[in-house]
Design a protein that fits this description.
Length: about 375
């Protein structure tokens, strides 16, 4: 196990250090911040990579974060207006510019820091009780102080609420209630679940009733396959968090005896009549746990799935690839490339079902990627071994 990073700073003529709990890189330096610091000063320091370790009222730290957000968003609106007046940029360039801006935004907003005690308590006025949320996210504390960015802490609290309340995912005429864990992508876009719930099952599944779910995540697709009649489902994932999350959800649904979970890269041993994969849709480098479910650098998982699929399909079996064409609209991947990878793997397309996703960003005309998002289609590609 990798040793945790340590954040160091000076306070009251004493050198302090604590475990760094955020996914962002360590600040270049740390200064103590409180209600006397102006938002302009905080913004200047944050832009320079200086961490602001908050030492007064917790709710005022939230207000400082909001003030930093306004200072970031104001010039962004001006840029968006100017860009709309200029000649349109290439879709790929727009995506990379957007990613760069988002990374800069995250870096600045992550400089407001909160210290957690060894039991995850916070010694600030009006601080919420985050002990249970942090314990779910990071495990039992070992009595050591730690520091987390306020923005990351808000994410931990949000994940705690999602895990407590669950997310309803419409499927098979009823709603599956899925409980995402911290660091595991929530199935908030249910169209891909609906595709798996409605696609015609391969005939081979009647004789060889085994299905693989590659990249199990929360376990939602494994649950759908089990409810659709697969006697045995094998769900795989590299992430321990994802496997724990999937097991939790399958136990809640009473499906743990039908689904075996395996920690491995892509495929388990053996063959199946149905192999389902919903890989990250965009070929770019992830920068956080959650982004690993969205970005697949170099389309490595996508190509690995396609190349390995033929050897893991029994006779008459099918591979279901669930993939958005957003990357194509963004200029990050072409349809010709995808079809070429399918052919090179010795596969053929047996059918395809498309659905138009419904999400808020597709309707947001101020989104820099609105044109691509509004044209997006999610597809279930039915693949078989080429004859």
């Amino acid at each position: 196990m990798t040793a945790p990073s340590l954040l160091t700073w000076s306070e009251k003529d004493t050198s302090r250090r604590a475990i760094w709990r955020s996914e962002q890189v360590l600040p270049k330096q740390v200064v103590l911040a409180d209600d006397t610091m102006t938002a302009d000063t905080a913004y200047r320091l944050a832009c320079a990579g200086t961490g602001l370790l908050w030492r007064s009222d917790f709710q005022n730290a939230r207000q400082m974060l909001q003030a930093l957000t306004r200072r970031i968003d104001k010039p962004k609106k001006v840029r968006a207006k100017k860009q709309s007046q200029d000649a349109p940029t290439m879709p790929g360039a727009a995506f990379h510019a957007h990613r760069q801006a988002q990374a800069q935004r995250t870096r600045i907003l992550s400089q407001v820091l909160i210290e957690l005690n060894g039991d995850y308590g916070i010694d600030l006025r009006r601080a919420p009780d985050v002990k249970a949320a942090c314990m779910q996210a990071f495990g039992m504390g070992k009595g050591e102080a730690s520091v987390i960015s306020l923005r990351s802490l808000q994410g931990v609290i949000g994940a705690f609420e999602w895990r407590k309340n669950g997310v309803e995912v419409p499927a098979m005429g009823e709603a599956l209630c899925i409980y995402p864990h911290y660091g595991v992508f929530s199935p908030v876009r249910g169209e891909y679940v609906e595709l798996v719930a409605k696609a015609p099952l391969p005939e081979a599944l009647k004789a060889h009733s085994v299905a693989f779910d590659i990249g199990v995540g929360t376990g939602v697709l494994s649950a759908v396959l089990a409810r659709r009649g697969a006697a045995q489902v094998v769900g795989t994932d590299m992430s321990e968090r994802a496997l724990a999350c999937a097991l939790d959800n399958l136990q809640r649904l009473g499906l743990q005896n039908q689904v075996q979970l395996v920690q491995t890269n892509l495929f388990p041993e053996g063959q199946a009549a149905l192999v389902v994969c919903n890989p990250p849709w965009l070929p770019a480098r992830p920068t956080s746990l959650l982004e690993q479910a969205v970005y697949d650098e170099g389309s490595q998982m996508l190509q690995g799935f396609l190349m390995g699929l033929p050897t893991h399909l029994c006779e008459g079996g099918e591979g279901w690839l669930i993939l958005s064409d957003l990357a194509e609209h963004l200029g990050l991947r072409t349809r010709e490339s995808l079809l070429g990878w399918i052919a090179d793997a010795g596969l053929e397309v047996m059918g395809r079902t498309d659905v138009k996703p419904v999400h808020a960003k597709a309707q947001d005309t101020t989104d820099p990627l609105h044109a691509a998002r509004s044209a997006e289609v999610t597809s279930l590609w039915r693949l078989g071994v080429a004859s």
